[in-house]
Design brief:
272 residues; mainly alpha; Cytochrome Bc1 Complex, Chain D, domain 2; 11 helices; 53% helix; 0% strand
């Protein structure tokens, strides 16, 4: 029979430390094994760079952010279809209805506009109306291209307009075309042209905005002077490069436009 008065043997500090370490060893070993297992699984799941989808994804990530294209300025112009003009120019406003533009494929937005008639809508698109700039901001678009885009958008809203076919062939010689365009215009008056210049043309030609030749800058005008008054007037009348038709003033009389062109031509050292 055990002696109830016997004393319990006390553990030494060394024995306590050994017990604690032994108790922690098992959990630490388990954690170590779990970490090794996870790392092994990750190593086995490396990204697939051989499949077609992976190759396309890589190509998309490393593709250039921009691309340069060489365009032959003397190449014949290929007119765009209505959808091509819409995708390139009009979609920026008409896809979302920005600035009050009628949304594409929205019959509610287009209903009242269709009632104005196709010719009126085309006129507004060419000349600009309210927040929309002339030709929707595509100054190099021809009247036919603008008309096709109008028909394409209006028809999405319920109209049944017929888009125009190919534009009439251009004249064989640019000089002849320029002469025909100015046949009904009297000889320009540079003195009167100065007033028109200050009211309409100075916005760009005074500072050379968007590549416009500055007034009196003979170096900038040298190549243009060779076109003669007729060629310069034709470009100003119909628009060219960044310059819109009639310098953006659709209501400008052709006689006033001719005077302004004559004024700038004389200031650059040219002759009428």
């Amino acid at each position: 029979m055990a002696d109830p008065h016997a004393k319990m043997t006390q553990a030494t500090p060394q024995e306590v430390i050994i017990s604690i370490v032994a108790g922690l060893l098992a959990p630490l070993l388990a954690i170590f094994l779990v970490v090794q297992l996870v790392l092994g699984i990750q190593d086995e799941q490396k990204p697939d760079t051989t499949s077609e989808a992976a190759q396309k994804a890589i190509a998309e990530r490393i593709k250039p952010v921009a691309r340069l294209e060489a365009i032959d300025a003397n190449a014949p112009k290929v007119e765009k279809s209505g959808q091509e003009v819409y995708d390139a120019i009009c979609t920026s406003c008409h896809a979302a209805g920005a600035l009050g533009a009628p949304k594409f494929d929205n019959k509610g937005d287009w209903g009242s506009r269709i009632g104005q008639g196709y010719d009126t809508l085309v006129k507004h698109a060419i000349e600009g109306i309210r927040q929309m700039p002339p030709r929707g901001g595509g100054s190099d678009l021809s009247d036919v291209e603008v008309a096709r885009a109008v028909a394409y958008m209006a028809n999405s809203g319920g109209a049944k307009f017929t888009a125009p076919e190919a534009a009439a062939p251009a004249a064989a010689a640019p000089a002849a075309a320029g002469a025909a365009a100015t046949a009904s215009v009297a000889k320009p008056d540079p003195a009167k042209g100065k007033v028109v210049y200050e009211a309409t043309c100075a916005a760009c030609h005074a500072t050379g905005v968007a590549g416009a030749p500055k007034l009196g800058d003979k170096a900038a005008w040298s190549a243009r002077i060779g076109q003669g008054f007729e060629g310069l007037y034709h470009s100003a009348l119909n628009g060219k490069n960044a310059m819109p038709a009639k310098g953006g003033n659709a209501d400008l009389p052709e006689a006033d436009l001719a005077n302004a062109v004559g004024y700038m031509l004389v200031e650059a050292g040219g002759k009428l």
